[in-house]
Amino acid sequence: MRILFLFSLSFFFTFSAFGQEETWFFLRARDTSFVPSFEKKDAYLIYTGNDARLKAALRNYKIKTFKKTWKHARKENLQKTFFVIADKQALMTDLLQNASHLFEFGEQIAQEDKKIFEPNDYGLTSTIGENLGAQVNLDYLDVMEVPKAWYYTTGSRDVIVGISDGSVPTDDIEFAGKSKVIRESFLAKGHGISVAETAAGQGDNGYGIAGVCYDCSIYATNYRHFDTLEQLVELSKLGVKVINCSWGLTHYYETAQQAIYEMLNNGTVVVAIGHNQSYYHTKGQKYYYPASYDGVISVSSASHRYEHYWENIRVEEDKGLYYVKNIRNYVGLTGGFKNNDTTQVPHLYPISIRNLNSAIDIVAPSSGLFRYSELALRDKIDVSEFNQTSGVAPLVTGTVGLMFSLYPCLPADQVESIIKLTSSNIDDVEPNKPYAGMYGAGMLNTGRAVKMVFDMFAGKGAVTMENQRFSRWNFKLTALAEVVIKNQEFTEDARLDLTSKRGIVISENTVLKPGALGKIHLKIDPSLEKECELQLRDPSILDD
Q1: Which neighbouring-strand residues pair with 370?
Q2: Cβ partners under 8 Å of residue 527, min gap 6
Q3: How far is CA 353 from CA 279, 283, 302, 435, in A?
Q4: More confident call, 2 vs 71
Q5: Is the dihedral of CA 194, 198, 203, 209 positive or negative?
Q6: pLDDT tens, 512-531?
Q7: What is the chain's alpha carbon radius of gyration, rounded to the nearest angstrom?
Q8: Best exposed site among 84, 175, 275, 321 by fewest CB in 10 Å?
Q9: Which among 37, 39, 70, 238 is positioned nearest to 141, based on CA atoms?
């Protein structure tokens, strides 16, 4: 086995000249009932309340936004957090010092984190958006950093997302003018409606919520023909770029595997669920298809809401047992404590873990997902209570749609590599360790995936691969930019085929030590050229 190392050393200086820039920050009030009153005058807000100390603190600033948001608000701080945009950074300090009877905490937002876009139907965590849609907590999209992806693209009508599921009503406000039924399906209790909304429901229309790839088109079909997947192949031949399958069965068919290869060659990516049976029953030994076919992005569920387990310790009143629920990056929904000792890290209840196995590629948030079918069919705002995987897959599907929307020439066989390379490693999360090797590369990060595509082809800076440890899978990546690999491991059976136009930098804490079944091939090819142009939401982004 031969490992080829190519080093490109680059020395550069970056000069930035900023004029006076507006400042963004979060501000936490002491009381949930506090809501300051403002009126708009020209482009700015004027405080109209009666608190003299607050009025004095605000007097010397121009305030563009001062609104409540649930973004980054912990359990006890919901409805106490404000998002503020003003002309001077000193405002936050001024408020904390001179209006300390009202505010207890503030946090500046870094310049890089200002590169976001939010539509006007982004729910309760909205900051720069108007929040005219469903009043629902969309913090799962925040954890995936979807607004950072929307900064670059919100999707394209030219990119078609396939939904193989229950029926999708083409005259619904979230799908009208952008959807088409290729094969009719039955209602399935609105299953297909919710899946389609999550992946590509229309955004910025003041209704419902924005799907991940909300400006993408939708082709809907049914979910039969498990042996040939003919309905999926049909979508692929019609130009569909990514197909969502929130269904599966346990039978393997070689004809279906060949259909997956055919679709991948056509430029179509298939995303499917590992399914909902609990790990308590499957023990990591049950495989569902099409998720477990080679070339399919197989998806399971993880939790997202509370950053630390002690933020959401609950008690079973009848037994007096403490437990936790929906803790970020845990692959189960609930967990308990040995000897009921809450000072110790909890262990996950296997019954609360959806099906995991060695074929799973990625996990994403699952509990608390908006169920659009309830609004469309019953005029009811509702979110998922448990962690079924059906709602997880369209988060991945929408992410893939954004990647293709940004760079339509993106090779389909590199999509899965980008999804994995940009995921959040969750191997060191203590409760996950008994399930290592069965939850894929980690937690989906839509923002990083789309940004990697931008960095690969924008010609503005380097592409960075970092903070992951891989001992399996085949990774393929071709970038016009320089690629920097740092704090990254490719060992054992991992295979990396990386080509860069400008160079490859092997940086600190990088381990490239494949075993007998692995391989590292790094190549610099100055002849690489763009096959098409980036399709940006705002072309001026290239000037940032």
Answers
A1: 383
A2: 501
A3: 5, 10, 8, 10
A4: 71
A5: positive
A6: 999 999 999 999 999 999 99
A7: 24
A8: 321
A9: 70
Residue-wise over 402-414: b if at least 16 C-beta within 10 A, else e?
Answer: bbbbbbbebebeb
Q: Is 370 helix (H, G, I), strand (E, B) or coil?
A: strand
What is the CB-side half-sphere exposure of residue 485 using CA atoms within 13 A?
24
Q: From residue 234, give the alpha-carbon distance in Å to each of 172, 243, 247, 296, 539.
A: 24, 11, 18, 17, 34
The arrangement of strands across the sheet holding 160-164 comes to 179-181, 217-221, 160-164, 242-245, 269-273, 296-302, 362-365
Instruction: Tell me what pLDDT residue 71 has.
Output: 84
Query: Rounded to whole angstroms, how far apart are CA atoms 407 and 479?
Result: 12
Helix (H, G, I), strand (E, B) or coil at 457: helix
* Residue of 210, 155, 157, 149 lying closest to 372 (CA atoms): 210
Look up residue 390 and give its two tokens.
Answer: 């059906």
- Which residue in the block uniquely carries the two structure tokens 């080679």? 294
| DSSP notation for 384-452 | -SS--STTTHHHHHHHHHHHHHH-TT--GGGHHHHHHHTSBP-TT-GGGGGGTTSSTT-B--HHHHHHH
Rounded to 5 degrees, what are φ and ψ at 531? Answer: -90, -20
Place of tokens 């090819």: 525
Tokens of 295: 């070339």
Give residue-wise pLDDT tens across range 219-263.
Answer: 999 998 999 999 999 999 999 999 999 999 999 999 999 999 999
Active site residues: 165, 191, 390
Q: How far apart are CA 269 and CA 250, in angstroms?
A: 21
Question: Is the peptide bond between 290 and the residue preceding it cis, with omega within 30 degrees of 0?
Answer: yes
Query: Is residue 341 classed as helix, strand or coil in its secondary structure?
Result: coil
Distance CA 8, CA 503 (A): 5
